[in-house]
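Async update (no meeting this week)

Hi team, since we skipped the sync, here's where things stand on the single-chain job. The sequence we agreed to prioritize is pasted below, unchanged from the tracker. I ran it this morning and attached the output directly underneath so nobody has to dig for it. Comments welcome in thread, and please keep replies under the output.
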Amino acid sequence: MGNSYAGQLRTTRFDEVLRNSIEASLRSNTVVPRPVFSQLYLETEQPLAHDGGLHGCKAEGVITSLAKECMSYFVVCVCVCVCVCPTGRTENDDEDDEVGSESNSPPIPYQMKPPPEGCCTIDGFCQTGRDLRLSSLASDPLDVPPEFMLVGVKSPSLPETLLVCAVDRRFLPDEKGHNALLGFFGNCMGCGEKGFRYFTEFSNHINLKLNTQPKKQKHLKYHLYRNNQGVLVKGAPICWRGHDGRSRQMGSSLSESHVTSDEQKANIALAHPTHTPGSYTAGSNVDPFGLPQITDVPHSLTNGNAAVTQPPSNPSGPGRPSAKGSHANTGPPKKRHKGWSPESSANSLPESTAKTPPSSSALSTLSVSSVITNGARSETAAPLSSLQGSSLTPPSPPALSVTIPDQLLHTCRLQPVIFKGHGPLPQLTGNANEVLLSSLLQSCYLSSQTLPRVYQHYGPSPIQPLSTEMQILLTIYYLVQLGPDQVPLIEDLEQIFMRSWRESHLSEIRQYQQPQTPASQGRPYGIETTTMLPGLPQHFSLPPQSQQPLTPSQLPWLAQLAASSCGEGVVVLGEKIGSLAQGLQQMFSRLMEGRLENTNYVVIIVTTLGQETQSCVVVTGKHQCRALAESMYSPKEGLKEINQQLSTGVAQDLIHYCNSQQDGDLDSLLDGATVDSSEPSPLSSSQESAEERSLKTTPSPKDTNSPKNSHKQCSKDLPSPKERASSPKDTCSEYSVEWREVRPIQLAVARKLLSHVCAIADSSTQNLDLGSFDRVSFLILVPSSEVTFQQTVLQLWKSGVLQELGGLDQKCVSQREAERYVVKMDQSAQARIDSLVQEAQSNSYTLYILVHDHAHCDINSASHSSSDSGLGLVDQLLNSRQVRDAPNVLILHVTSFPFALQTQYTRISPYNEIHWPSAFSNDVDLYHEKTRYFGVSELLESTRSGSSLPLMRHDSSFESMASALEERFPKLHSAVIRTTVLIQHYCVALMAASGRISSSHNLHKHTSVETLEIVQSLLSASQQCPAHHGHMVLLRIPSSALAAWAHRRLSRVRRQLGLEENFEIILGNPNQPLNIGPSFTDQIKTWLKIQDADWVPQTYLELEALPCILILSGAEPLGESLPRSLKYCDLRVISCSYLQRTTLEQELGLAAYLVRAESRPPHNPGPGSDLLESDAEKLSSTDNEEEEAQENGDSPPSCNQQLQSCPESGALDPVPAQSSTFPNVSQKGVMDAIQPPPKSQTQLQTQTPLFLYHQATIHQPQVQSYSPAQPISQLQPQPQIQSPNRSLSQTNSQPYTQTLPPHQSLSQMQIIRPQTQPRPPAQSRRQHSKSTSSGSLSPRASSPQQSCSWARGVSRPPSVLLPRTLYDIITASDSSGLPRCTSFLPHMSVAWASSFRPLLSKMMTCTEQSLYYRQWTVPRSYHMDSSNRTEGRSDNFHPRRLLLSGPPQVGKTGAYLHFLGILSRMLIRLMEVDIYDEEDINYIAQAEGVLYHPPNASWPNTDIMRTMPFDYTIHDPKYDDISSVYCPGSTPSFEGNPVRQEDVYLRRRTSRIKLSKYAAYNTYHHCEQCHQYLGFNPRYQMYESTLHAFTFTHLLLGEEIQLFFIIPKSKEHYFYFSQPGGQLESMRLPLSSDWNPDCIKSPIFTPTTGRHEHGLFNLYHAMDGASHLHILVVKEYEMAVYKKYWPNHIMLVLPTVFNGAGIGAAHFLIKELSHHNLELERSRHLEGGGPTVDVWPFIILADDSCVMWNAEDIDAHNGSVEHAVSLKQILQHMEACPDLAHYGLCGIRKWSSRGLTGNKQREPFSRGHLHDFLLLNVDQSQNVQYDQNRFTCHDVDFTLRLHSAGLLVCQFNSFSVMKKQIAIGGYKTFIIKTKTTDVPTSVGPSQYICAPDSKHLFLATPAQLLLEKYLQHTRQKLFPLSTKNYTHPVLSVDCYLNLGSEVTVCFVSSRPHSVNICTTGLLFSGLLLCFADSFVTPAFLKKFTFLKGATLCVISADRSSLRQTVGRLELEEEWRFRLSDEFQTANAKEDRPLFFLTGKHI
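Output:
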C-alpha cells in the first residue's frame, strides 16, 4: 500500500476500519498477507533481523489522531502485521516516537550540556554522587512529597536497571494515556534536590548522557511501588499517549497464529511451502482447517510487565535450529525509531531461541489428553501447592442456579462439558446427567499461579503471577488455534501460561536464574528450556504482549475480537453478562435453538464492576464433547461402560444400521453365500444371530466368551474341516526355522548387567557379598497373562539356563520343570514369593534373583488396591520388608517403558539402570548383528521418508464412516462404534475377497481399501504356498467383551463363506490359554515335525506362518510376543483417550520387529532401491495424503501429469498375471470395479494429491492410462526388476483423472519390486519362537524368487494402522524435534512435579531421560513408590535393585536369561581358582623303600633327621628348566626341549579348585567377617596409620640400613615404642614358652611387587580368625598403592636403592631385620628380668600367591587322604614341634593332585630344597644370608648354603600349600629394555654382555639379572663340555647359579667345617667362581680335578677385583686366558656392570 494515504485521515470510523482490516487479513488466501493497519498508519517500520522467505511486503503508516482517541478502548488487541521487506527483515514499529511528530526528516544531533567541573559523572548516580539505582534504593525510606509519584527512569547506559525519581503526578498520564500536562516537574531522590522544571535539566543532573533530545516520554518508563515486603519494585509501564499506546499497545494482531516475535522465523517459514513440507496442502494456500495463513507477529500479552520482543536473527535458514545468543540488530535505528535502546534487544531474547522446522504437526489433531489433562488426573487433581495462596476466588455457594433444558442430549445430540474456570459455578438443576462438569481447567489456572513462587526464597521480587484476565485471554487464544477435530490438552495450556509468564518477566527471571532456578534446574543434563510450545502446531503462538495491565473492562471486547478470527468456532459471551448463571442460561438457549451448531467452545466471562472476574468454558463441539467425556473415565471405568452398553442392548441399533447399509441386508447376503447344503438353514431376518443376541446379554468373558466354547458352537453347525495333506509335494522348501543363539548385543547387555552387580558388590556400602555365594537361584515374575507366562517358560526351557544352574542334562529338564521358575503375578504368586523368602533365609550361600519382567504393568500401591483387583501384588511382594532386607536377594526390573519407575521417589538408583545400547552408530554395526531392530522410531521414520509406503498409516475411509456413526449414535461409546465398523469392514472384505458374493452388490464401497488389502493378503498368502504358509493379522480390541463379539462375528462370516480351512481366527484373552482349531494345530505340528500327539501351541510365537487373525484383547498388552509372520497390526480401534507415553508406546510396540540386517529398509531409498514395502502384497498408496503431498510436492515439472487415482488412496493385492508359475493360485478376491466415492469425500480429497490406485487382474488386459504428454516408460517398471510372479500394477479406468492436482508427479507411484537378496539356507529345527531373545525363532528364506508369501514377508516389518487422531499425535513433533507423544505424561500413575518444566531434548541419552523423569515426575498416591520417602534423605534407593530397559521385542528376555547363566558361572568362578597342579620333577624312587619316620609321625625326630641324606635334587616343577644339582647316585634325564623361564608360568599345568573356607583372598573379597580385618573398624578411622623409620647397621652392606614401617593404629600393639607415639624401638616377639590357641607366634613376611590388587594378603579366613602379625614387604615406589588397597596391613618399605632389586634383596633384608629385631627383643627382655634365649626366633616367609593349605591324614583303609585345613592349624602344629629350635629352616611341600609319583607310601619328613612357604630360624641361620643381588633361584642357593653350614632343613610332607596362578606382577616380571628408550625391545641373550670399553647398546636392566639370564641361555657356548654331561658337572664354589637345564652344577662350600659331597675321583667340566671371598684359596681349588679343556668363569664386581682374583688364586697356572675372553654385562658405567673372565683348563 505504500504511503498512499500519507498525512491524510480516513473518514471511516476507527473500530470499523480496525475490525474489517483484521478480518480481511486473517481470512486472506494469499501467501503474502495484507498489512492489517495500512489504512491507519503510514510510516515504514524498522526492519528487524529475519531469515527471509517472503519479499516485497511493507507495512507503513502513522497512528492517526482518531486512532489515538480510540486507544482508550483497548490495550492489546491488535497485531502489527509481520511483513518482510526485500532485505529479509520484518517491519514492526516497536519503538517510541515524538508526540505529534509527523516528520520523516533525519534526527537532529543532540549535544548534551557538559557537566560542571568536579561533579560526579558515573552512570546510575546523580551529579552530587548519590546512588539513584532502583536496586540500591529498593529498601531505603524515601521522602515523596504529596501529589508526587515515584517513577523509574530508563538510562541508555544502564539497560538492566532503573533510576528512581519523583515526578508530579499532574505531568504524568493516567492509565488511559490522557490528562498529562506538558512540561516536567520532578525531584532527585538521591541528593534530595527539588524543583527541576525542565526534563533536559533533570536528565543532565541524573547523568542520562543522551545522544538525542531528552524527552520525558522516552525515559520516564515505569511506575514504582512498594510490594508486600515493603520493597520498591517496578510496576506498570507509564502509558504515554502516542508512544507506548501506539507502538506497544498496538503491537499485536489477532491473526489466528498469534506468533510471538521470537517465533517469527519459524512461523514465517510456514508461509513458504517449499521450505516447510507438511505445513500446507500442496498447491493450496488455504490452511487445512480453513484458517488464514500465519503472518502476523504480536507480542506476548501479560498482566503488567512486558519485555520488548524482537526476533533474533537466524542465518541458518528456515526450519534450521538456531541458538544464537546475541541480537543481530545492534545498530542505531532510524528517525522514527529514535526511542531504540539496547535493552530492547537484550530483553527480547528468550532463554532459548532454538527452533525446529514446522512439520505435519501443523495439521495434526492434538486430540484428547485426559480431558485437558492426561488421563490419570482426577477431577480435583490440582497440586496441593496450587491451592495455597491462590489469587483465584475460593469457591463460595452460588447465588443463582441454572436449569438444564429437557431433552438436551436428544435435541443437540451431544453432552456438553463445562469446565470450571474462575469463580464459583452456579448450581445446575434439571437433567444434570446430560451435562458433564470438570474442574481440570480450574486446576490448570491454579497451577499457573504457583509458577512465580519458585522465586520467592530469593527475597523480594517484582515477578507477579498471571492475572485472571490474562489467563482467560490466553485460554481463548489457545481454543481459537485448535482445529475442528482437535481436543485441548492441559500440557499445552500449561506451557502457554508458563511461556507467557516467562516472557513477561524475562529480565527478572534471568537475574534469579543465576543461583539455581527451576528453569536452570530443567537443564542439569543439557536440557534446553525451549520457548516453543510443546507439541502445538508450529503456527501456534501466544497472544500479544503489552506494557499495560489488562483490565477487566477490556477483557470481553478483547476476547470477542480474539475469537472473531475463527468465525463461529469459539463464541465469547461477555457483554451484558452479569453472572455465570446468566451466561450458562444464554448458552443453553442458543444450544437448544441450534445457534451453536458450528461452535466448539463457548467462553463465558463475567466482569462486574467491583467484583472478581469470573469465567467458565463450555465445550459444545460434538467430537470434542465425546472425546472429553470418554477420557473422564479411567481405563477400568471405560471398559465397564462398554460392557454395560453391550449387555443392555443399546448397541443393537448400531448393528442393524450397519447391516442395512449394504445393497441388501448383510446377513441375507451371507445366508445366500452359504456353501454347504448340509448346513442348517441360515438365520432369517427375523431370527437374531448369535452375535446379536450376545450383544444384549453378554456374560462375563470368563465363561461363554472363551474361544474354546465359540469354536465348539461353530463346529456343531459345520462339517469337520478337511485334513491338510502332508505329502512331500505339499511341503514348502522355503520354510525353515532355527533356534537363535544369544545375539552379540544380548551378550553385551548380559555383561553390563553382570558388571553392575559386581559394582554393587565392589562398592564400599557392602550391600552385596558375591564372594559368599556359591550358587544362583531365580524366580521370574510375569504379568497375569497365560500366553506371556508360557512364552517365558518356553524361552527359559530352551535357553539352557536351568541346565547350567543345576548341572543337569538338557533331557533331564522338562518344560514342566521350567514352570517352577516362572510365576504369574496373580493371587497364586503370594505363596511362591513367601516360599522363596523362606528359602533365602535358610540358604545364605545362595544368591536369589527376582526378575520382575514387564515391570510397568503393575506399579500400584498395595494399600490402594483391593485384594480381588489383582493390582498391588508387586508392591506387596517385592517391596515387603522380608525381600527388601534379605542380603542375598537381588531384584531386577525389566521393562520397555521404565518411565513410571523413574520418579522423585524411585527405589532404583540411577547408577543401577542398564539401558539397551544402540546397535548402530553412524550406520556402523557395533555388535556385528545379523538382525536389525525395527521399532517405534523406525515406524515414524517410514512416515517421513516420502519415497515408500509408510509402514504406519491411518485409514481415512474408516475414520469418516466411524465419525458419521459417532454423530448418529451420541450415547454409544466410541469404542463400540469403531469396533462395530471395523468388524463390519472385515466381514464385507471377506465377502468381497471370497468371490461368493456377486460383484453387482458393490461390496467394496462398504469397506476400506486398507481392510480389503489386509483380507486379500491373508487369503492369497496361504494359497500361494504349497504348505499353506501365511501371515498373521493382529486386530487389537482392548475390550474383552467387544473382542469376544468380534471373534464370534468373524467366525460366523468365515463359516458361511466356507473359509474355515483358509485361516484361523484366534481370540487372545490374557486370562485364558491359547486355543486354536485341531486342523491348524496339526498343520503346525507338521511344519515343525512334532511327534507328540498331545502337543498344542501355547504361545503366539508358535503360530509362525499360520494364516490367522489374532484378536488381542485386554486393557493393555501384557508382554505377549508375536511371530515374525505378523504382517498387519491393526490398531484402528485402540483408545485415543488416555494419552500417556507408556500407553501409546505399548500399543506401537506390538509391531516391533527384528529384520535381517541385509534386508533392513534404507533410510533414504532411491528410485532404484528395493523398497521395503514394494512387494506384490503391499499397498501402493496411502491414506496420509497431506504428508505425502508435501513430501512429493517439489517434483520436476516435466513429470507433473494428471494421473488417475482412487479416493480411498489404497490398492488391492495384485494377483500374479502369469499362472504358469503358480497353477494353484486362487484367482478370487479381485475387485471387479472401482466405484466412485461419496461426493463429499471426493471434494475433501481434491485438495491433496493421491497415489495411483493399483489393481491387477488376470482376465483383463494390462491397461495403462496416461495423458498424451506422458511417456509410457514412466509408467512401466524397468525390465530387470520384473519377475514371473509379479505383474505390473494396473490402473483403473479413467473416470477420476481430475481428482489429482496438476502437480502430481510420477515419483509418487510405487513400482513393485521383487526382493532380490538371496537368503542362506538354514537347518530346520523343532524349537521355535520369535527372534527377540535367546529362545527365539529365526525363519529364513532361501531363494530370491520366492513362491511362499510368508518367506517373502518374514524379513519385512509389519504395517501398522492407527486411528487418525493418534496418527497425527504420534507423527507430530514438538519443539525439540521429538515425537509429540514423548512430551506426554509418562504414565497414569505419576504426575508432573511442576508445570514449570522443560521439554525433553532430542539429544538426550536414555540416562539423561531417566534423570529428567526423576526430577520432574512424582508418583501419585496409588503408585507403589509414593511411600518411599525418608525424612532427612534426598534418596531412598534400594541397594540391590536393578532396572533393565530396552525397546519392546528387542530381546531383553534372552539377555537377562543369559545374565543368569553368566552370573552363575561367575559365582562358581569366584569360588574357584587356578591352582598349579604339577608332578614333582627329577624324582627317583627309593630303591630300598626305607621309611625313616613312622607314617603317622606328627613331628620330625632330630636324630633321625641328621641321619637322613640331604636331597640335592630340585623337585619343584617351576624349576624344570634350571641346572640340576649334582648328587652322587642320581642320573637326571635331559630329554625334552627346555623352555625359557619367563614363559614357564604360561604353560604350566593348573587345575580349577573350589576355594575352601580357609582360603586367602585378594582385595576383591570382602565379607562381613572381614570388615574389621580389612580396616572397617569403628574404633579407628579408615586409612589411619603412621610412618615409622627403623635403622640398623649391617656389616655386609657396610652402611646403615633405614627401613620404614607403615603401621595402622589398630596394629600398633604389635610394636614397642620409646613412648606412645614416639620412636619405634622394636617389633614385639613372644617367648618360646608362650602358647595361645588363638595366636600365631611367628611374624609372617610377604614380599610382593605389582600385585596390590591380586596378591593374597587377606589371611583372615586362612587363619580362622586367629591373631597374627602379617607384614607386607613392598618397594618404595609402590608404597602408596599398596597402602590404598590394604589400609589395615603393616607394611615394610624397602630402601630406595632396592627399587630395582629382585626377590633376593627382599629376603635378605627381611632376614637381617628379623635377626636385628631378635637381638633387640632379647635385650628388652633382659632389661625386664626375663631369660635372654627364650624369645621366639622364627619368622615365616610366604609367597603372595599361597591360597590354600592341605593336610594329609593316614587312613588304614583308604591310604592317605588330603583335606583343606587352616593356615592357623599348620603353623600351630609346626610351632609346637618339640625340637623346632634345632632346625634352621622348615617348610611344606607343593600340592599336586597326583601326589608323589612312584612312592606309594610317602616319608612324612624329608631334607631337601624348600620353596614358597618357609619357617626360618633367624637365630640358627645368623651366619647364612640370602644373596641380596639374586633375581632367580635365590631359594635354591640359600638352601644349599644353609645345608652346607650344617643346619637342619626339614620339609613337612603331611602338609601342602596350593599356589594360585597369578599372571600379573611378581618378582619374575622384569622387562629387559634398552637404555635409550622405555619401550621394551627384543634383545637376545647374546646382547646381554659385551667386551669392556666397546661401543655397545647398553641396557636399562640390573647387571645381576643380565648375568643370570646370560648364563642360563648360553650354556653351550660357555660350558660346552658340560652340556648333557651329568657325570662331569660344573664346580660352583659358594653359590648356585642357573647354567641351563642341560648343565649339572656341583655345589661346594669353601667355609671351614662345611658339609660338602665327596668329590674324590670326580672330573669337573668347568669351574664357576662368583664373587670369590677370602675363604677360596689356591689350596682349596687344587682339591678338585678338571677335564682338559674345561671352562673357567670368574665373576667380579669390577675389572680390578677380577684381575686380583685371578692372581690371588693362581689361576694362570692351570688355566689359559685370552684378552678377548674378558666380558662385562651390557650396562653403562653408572649402572655398575659386572665383569667376568673365561678360560680353558690346560
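Quick observations from my side:
The CA atoms of residues 631 and 1137 lie 5 Å apart.
The two ends are 126 Å apart (CA to CA).
Reply here if anything looks off.
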